[in-house]
Amino acid sequence: MASAATHLGLREATLEGLQRTPKELPTVWLYDERGSQLYEEITRLPEYYPPRREREILRARSPEVAARTQARTLVELGAGNASRTRLLLDALAPTLERFVPLDVSEQFLRSTAEAVAAEYPRLAVDPFVGDFERDLHSLPAGSPRLIALLGSTIGNFYPAQRRRFLSAVAGALEDDDAFLVGLDLVKDVERLAAAYNDGRGVTEAFVRNALTAVNAELHATFDQRRFVYTAHWDPEHEWMDIGFRARHAHGVSVRALDLELAFAENEQLRVEVSSKFRRERFELEARDAGLGVDGWWTDEAGDFALALMTRNERRSTCP
Ligand code: AVJ
User: Which residue's CA is the closest to the ligand 1 atom numbered 2?
Assistant: First the structure.
C-alpha cells in the first residue's frame, strides 16, 4: 500500500519519503493495530460516505458479479475486517471454495479470518499477511479466482504506482480470473473535504497515529503539538492530500534511520493521497495496463463505483 514500500523495505521507503519534497511518510504507517481500529471507526462516521455507498452497490450487484465470475477463490486485497466482503461471500456461495484475505495488519487479519471461518464453515479460509503491491505474484492458485480491492484503497496509489499495480494484476490474472475494484468518484469539494475532516476528529486521530507509530518503531521525535492536521482537495491531481503542516520551524530526528529533518514553518508532511476517479479515464488506464472493464456499477447518487475487469483480449493474444 505504501508508496515506495514496493521494492524497498518500510525503513528504506520511510527514509526515501522523508527526503522528498514534499516530505512524506509511507501510507502503511497508518495501519498498525490501533490505526486499523481507528479506520474501522472512520467507516462508521456520517461524513465518510464511501463504505455505505459501496455496500449499496455490492448489495445490488454481487449476484451479477457471482454469475459472471463463477469464482472458486476469492482473494481480498487489504481485507481489513472484510465487512463488505460478506455480501460477496454470500452471493458467491454456490461456487466458492476458498477465501484468502490479505492484509498488512497481522492481528487484525487473524481475527477477520477466524470470524469469517466461523460464519462460513464450508469455506476454506487462508489468511495471507502481506503487502499487495509486492505479493501479487505469490497469490494462491484456484481459478476462476476473483481478486477484490474494495473501499477505494487503490486511491492511495500515485498514478505511476497505480499503473504498475494494474499491470501487475493483469499479469497475475489467469484467463478465467476477474478483478473487482471499488472506486470513489470525483464529486463536490465540500463533501470530499468533510469526509476527511470529520466533526469528531477521528480521521485526525487516525492520521496522527502514523506519527506515534514512527516515533515508537523508528525512535523518531515527531511532536504532535508541532504539527497541524490538514486534508485538502488538490484539483490538479484530483486527490485529497492528507497529512500535516508544521506549526513553526523545528527539527525532528529519526534515530533508527540516522536522519535529522528540518521543517520550515508551514512545511507539509504528507501521509496519504486519496485519489478520486472518473469513469473514462479509469477505463483507459485499465486498458493500457491490460485490463478490460466489463462491468461498471455506481450507487444511486453516483458517489462511488465498482468496476469488474478481466484480462484484455488484446493483451492475452499478443505473442
Ligand atoms: C482506505 C485509502 C480508502 O482514502 O478514503 C480514510 C483511507 N484516510 N480517511 C481513503 C482514509 C482517511 C481511505 N482508504
Answer: 153
Per the CB < 8 A criterion, the answer to whether 242 and 270 are in contact is yes
- Give the tens place of pLDDT for each residue, 144-162: 999 999 999 999 999 999 9
Q: Which residues line ligand 1 (CB under 6 A)?
A: 42, 151-153, 155-156, 196, 203, 206, 272, 274
How many Å apart are CA 83 and CA 312, to the nearest integer? Answer: 30
The burial class, CB within 10 Å (0-12 / 13-18 / 19+), for 112 is buried
CA separation (Å) from 250 to 18, 202, 213, 221, 235?
15, 26, 20, 11, 30
Does the predicted model carry a pTM greater than 0.85? yes
Ligand 1, closest atom to CA 156?
Answer: 2
Q: What is the DSSP letter of 175?
A: T
Beta pairing partners, 275:
239
Q: How far is the CA of 196 from the centre of ligand 1 (A)?
A: 8
- Whole-angstrom distance, CA of residue 307 vs CA of residue 61: 11
Pairing of the two strands 98-103 and 124-125? parallel
- Round to whole Å and give the CA distance between 274 and 283: 18
CA distance 302 to 299: 5
Ligand 1 atom having least distance to the Cα of 206: 12
Q: Where are the beta strands (DSSP E) in 111-199?
A: 124-125, 128-129, 145-149, 178-184
Q: Answer yes or no: are the C-beta atoms of 245 and 230 closer than 8 Å.
A: yes
The CA 274 to ligand 1 mean position distance, Å, reads 6
Confidence band of 8 (pLDDT split at 50, 70, 90):
low
Which residue CA neighbors atom 4 of ligand 1 most closely? 274
Atom 13 in ligand 1: residue holding the nearest Cα: 153
Residue 59: how many CB atoms within 10 A of its CB?
A: 14
